[in-house]
């Protein structure tokens, strides 16, 4: 076991101050701090309102221009991770810019059916995104009807 000598205490204190300083310093990096959403241009022609409702709950924070920015989205490095996830999500499918072509849109229902979406790490902080098995099936059917297998 480590003895807490004056030298050990000094090293621990230096490490803690350095980590705190680094955390404060990275707050100056602006990536992930632009909490404005682009305008909504065009949504898909949803097969029914329920499909859109489920998509809003489980998908829209990362796959639309209607992202809700929680308090922790202002704190680096979490803000960086959130911005990266949202940029990636909007790049794959953005339900607010449906005039664009999304090559993987037809796979949306499959990713929901396989439990890949919403991601496991998203759900604990967004409990409304947790879909029951019945809701997951309903969203899968609705996405297939709305987007088809090829988007």
Describe the structure using short key phrases.
mainly alpha; about 45% helix
Overview of the structural elements:
The chain has 151 residues and is mainly alpha-helical. The protein has one domain (31-147). It is 47% helix and 0% strand. It contains 6 helices and no strands. 23% of the residues are buried. The mean pLDDT is 89.
Q: Determine the strand fraction and express it as a percent band.
A: under 5%
State the order of secondary-structure elements, H for helix, E for strand: HHHHHH
How many helices? The count is 6
C-alpha geometry: elongated
The N- and C-terminal alpha carbons lie at a distance of 60 Å
Question: What is the percent of helical residues?
Answer: 40-55%
Structural classification: mainly alpha
* Overall mean pLDDT: 89
Q: Would you report the number of β strands?
A: 0
Number of domains: 1
Computed Rg: 21 Å
- Major sheet: none
Uncertain segments: none
Strand and helix layout:
Blueprint lengths: L5 H21 L22 H10 L1 H4 L14 H15 L15 H6 L19 H15 L4
Helix pairs in contact: 2-6
Brief write-up:
With about 150 residues, the chain is an all-alpha fold. The protein contains 6 helices and no strands.
